[in-house]
Amino acid sequence: MLKPSLELKGASFTLSVLHINSSDLPAVMAELDSKLAQAPQFFLGAPLVVNLSAIQDNHFNLGLLKELLLSRQLVIVGVTGATSVLSHQAKELGLAIVKAGKQTTQAPPPPRQTKILRQNIRSGQQVYAKNGDLIIFGAVGNGAEVIADGSIHIYGALRGKAMAGASGDPTAVIIAHALEAELVSIAGRYWLAENLQQHSSDKSGCIRLEGESLMVESLPL
Predict the structure, then answer these.
(1) pLDDT band per the 50, 70, 90 thresholds, residue 2
(2) Which pLDDT tens digit goes with each residue over 99-150?
(3) Which of 4, 25, 86, 144 is the most exposed place for a label (fewest CB within 10 A)?
(4) Bridge partners (DSSP) listed for residue 51
């Protein structure tokens, strides 16, 4: 029997949501450029859903926003929270209208494994723990990336980027003895260095999701 030339299957993907809170596109782009400069590789080619719930101006130029994001190698795949006028504009631009809905029942994840490294992770290096947790007895330097589908434990300084729950697990955490990260992310929600500094004055900490937002807790070390 010949295999069909196409198949339509259900799947789950983690997408970042870009909240646009102002109709002033030059100001929005200036702020976005500042954030992109801190972690350019993390956002490169990233598919985005744009949340327009704060925009009530029906003259908002969604086409220009799309072009400005494409020029920064970001890709709008859809919009959410838009007025009916802006939703119509989105459809004309070939963008999906994304609505929040009930999550579908998914198959149980494979057994979680643990990847243990006893070394420093230096600039330019990337470590990925697939379907498991990542434990590092050492430091993660500036420009280094550590990624895990589960949680990340760093028994040293975290100065680079750490992305836990990479496959969408919202229960993942990031624990480090010294939080000096360029970027931290859990299940697609992220903080840059400036956000981390605003929320934590302690050197050590545990970063986790509470609802849709990241939070950091002190560690009794």
Answers:
(1) low
(2) 865 544 555 656 778 999 999 999 989 999 988 999 999 999 999 999 999 9
(3) 4
(4) 19, 80
Among all chains, which residue has been given the structure tokens 């929270």? 81
73, 31, 41, 16: which is closest to 143 by C-alpha?
A: 41
Alpha-carbon distance of 95 to 93, in angstroms, equals 6
Structure tokens at 183: 């970027």
